[in-house]
Write a structure and sequence with these properties.
The complex is a heterodimer of chains A (296) and B (241).
Chain A: E1 2-13, E2 16-23, H1 25-31, E3 36-38, H2 42-50, E4 55-58, H3 59-65, E5 72-77, E6 80-91, E7 99-103, H4 104-111, E8 118-122, H5 129-140, H6 149-192, H7 194-202, H8 207-249, H9 259-285, H10 289-293
Parallel strand pairs in A: 2-7, 4-6
Antiparallel strand pairs in A: 1-2, 1-8, 3-6, 4-7, 5-6
Chain B: E1 8-19, E2 26-37, E3 41-45, H1 52-59, E4 67-72, E5 75-76, H2 82-92, E6 93-96, H3 108-118, H4 123-136, H5 152-164, E7 170-174, H6 182-199, E8 202-206, H7 210-213, E9 218-223, E10 226-232
Parallel strand pairs in B: 3-8, 3-9, 6-7, 7-8
Antiparallel strand pairs in B: 1-2, 1-4, 4-5, 9-10
The chains are: A alpha+beta (296), B alpha/beta (241).
């Protein structure tokens, strides 16, 4: 078992509030850190932080202040301003102010603050994390929340799901609206083309062939609609993730195109269109020819 | 499907057609009987609303009689399944409408090829036949034109080429010159006569025009839902022949 104590505190960088994290880098490097470094080896960088060669900053900080690896960040300490070379940029969505990660011992030394905000505990390979959690809770008292990494991920996932529930509801509503739109489109399209469809019948086209033609058209419309939706959705989601989210929250999220969902979208819209076309196509193929041709 | 010359190609027996129900009921045809032999060129005449179009619709299987029987070749249309009637129309009956009824999004050539495509023929095989059919109506140079780019006469010639492309034994034409001027109408009648003479196709044509009726080997007059006159042209006096 190993334990690392981390400290997070509000600090100041040339008049701007930032979050300073005193991170037990040596222990974290030895047991596997839960940080994501952009362009670099996590373990190697943590060891460099532990050796006090410099600090890591969050991508939010990097974008906010326009600083990156090779630059120096200046932080106010009780003894005055001190400069720290930036070694790397890490992904951190905990706060939008921007964070500076330095070694816990350096934080204690420069800020004279030995308190700890959170402990990270690594269980031994043969140890049951839930039993360990129970032991830790009993030792320090139940007032302090103790979470396994799995519980923590579940907690975050739950919060994300909760936050996204409105988006999911909107997704469902737009799906239902799209379904009705397709049905409506096909009904209107076949109604507008009554005379044309009746003409097919008048020249002897079988009902089955007419249904098949209308089905193919519906599938084509569905497929094109799905493709257009994927393209439009891709562009819109990129603009939201890369444009609106950083503007509103200060977070720079990684954009990932949902390839598998996009691949599924087109066959799904084709299937929806095909199902939607069943009744209108059937009705259209059974039009009373004389009436529809207007030859009465 | 073959027919003996003396055998009736079309036979209607006691046919009544009623439209609507209750107080809105209208009788289109009442107890009509008619035999049309193979190779005839029959003109159906009569006042508007007399039942001419109803008669031709029933012969073409576009509509079904309320009572009575309609036989075309060896098919009893009043009880034949819809797809059998459509197959008959696709392969053996050509239809020309007064309003042309061409598909506006297709070229003249594609419109003419439609019955063959509907019969499952590949486009590659259908197009040369469509081109040949357009040639017969002297319109091959307009093959790529859309209906909106064609005059009324040209559109009706495309419709005639479409009706003839499957080499039908029976051609039904509902006032094919109704929307045409006198000269274009006369050209249309010439084309119909040519098809009748060269292909031996039986033609049943609805018309108001007495001059067109003189081209027919036989005329029947339909008024108030009944056949009120049936005249055969004396042998050897066929107009246009």
């Amino acid at each position: 078992m190993a334990v690392a104590g981390h400290r997070a505190a509000l600090g100041d960088s040339r008049g701007h509030p930032v979050v300073i994290i005193g991170y037990d880098a040596a222990v974290s490097a030895a047991h596997g850190a839960r940080i994501t470094v952009i362009n670099g080896d996590e373990r190697d960088l943590l060891l460099r932080v532990a050796r006090r060669e410099g600090v890591m900053v969050s991508d939010t900080f990097s974008r906010r202040f326009g600083l990156g690896p090779g630059d120096t960040v200046f932080l106010s300490t009780p003894d005055g301003e001190r400069g720290f070379p930036i070694l790397a940029v890490v992904l951190d969505y905990s706060v939008d102010l921007g964070t500076v990660v330095l070694d816990a011992s350096a934080y204690r030394e420069f800020w004279g603050d030995a308190s700890v905000t959170s402990y990270e505990v690594w269980a031994a390979p043969d140890e049951d994390p839930r039993a360990l959690r129970q032991r830790v809770s009993e030792r320090i008292g139940y007032a302090v929340p103790v979470l396994t990494s799995r519980d923590m991920r579940a907690e975050f996932d739950g919060q994300l799901d909760h936050a996204m529930s409105i988006a999911y509801a909107t997704e469902l509503a737009s799906g239902v609206i799209a379904l009705f739109s397709v049905v409506n489109f096909i009904v209107v399209a076949t109604h507008d083309r009554r005379r044309e469809i009746a003409l097919w019948g008048a020249i002897g086209t079988s009902r089955r062939t007419i249904e098949r033609i209308l089905h193919c058209e519906a599938c084509l419309v569905g497929g094109l609609g799905g493709l257009f939706g994927v393209l439009l959705g891709g562009v819109t989601s990129y603009l939201v993730v890369r444009g609106a989210v950083p503007l509103v929250s200060g977070w720079w999220l990684e954009y990932r195109f949902p390839g598998s969902a996009a691949l599924l979208a087109v066959p799904i819209t084709i299937a929806v269109a095909a199902v939607s076309a069943v009744l209108p196509a059937r009705r259209a193929a059974r039009l009373p020819l004389v009436e529809a041709l207007g030859t009465l | 499907m073959s027919m003996r010359r003396d055998e009736a190609l079309v036979e209607l027996s006691g046919v009544t057609k009623v439209y609507g129900e209750g107080t809105g009921m209208v009788t289109g045809l009442a107890d009509v009987s008619l035999r049309v032999g193979a190779g005839e060129f029959l003109g159906i005449m009569g006042p508007t609303g007399g039942g001419k179009t109803t008669l031709i619709n029933l012969i073409g299987g576009l509509d079904r009689p309320t009572r009575g029987t309609v036989r075309v070749a060896d098919h009893q249309l009043e009880r034949a399944p819809e797809d059998v009637i459509r197959l008959l129309r696709r392969r053996h009956i050509g239809v020309v409408f007064q309003a042309f009824n061409l598909l506006p999004s297709l070229s003249a050539l594609e419109n003419v090829a439609l019955p063959l495509l509907a019969d499952g023929l590949a486009r590659r095989a259908a197009e040369p036949r469509a081109r040949a059919a357009l040639e017969q109506v002297h319109l091959v140079e307009r093959a790529a034109a859309r209906p909106a780019e064609l005059s009324g006469g040209e559109q009706q010639r495309v419709a005639l080429a479409r009706a003839l492309i499957a080499d039908p034994m029976l051609l039904l034409a509902d006032e094919p010159t109704g929307c045409l001027d006198t000269r274009t109408g006369a050209e249309m009648v010439d084309l119909l006569l040519r098809a009748h003479r060269l292909r031996g196709v039986t033609i049943i044509l609805v018309t108001h025009d007495e001059r067109i009726a003189t081209a027919c080997t036989r005329t029947v007059t339909v008024a108030d839902g009944a056949i009120v006159a049936d005249r055969r042209r004396p042998v050897g006096s066929t107009a246009g022949g």
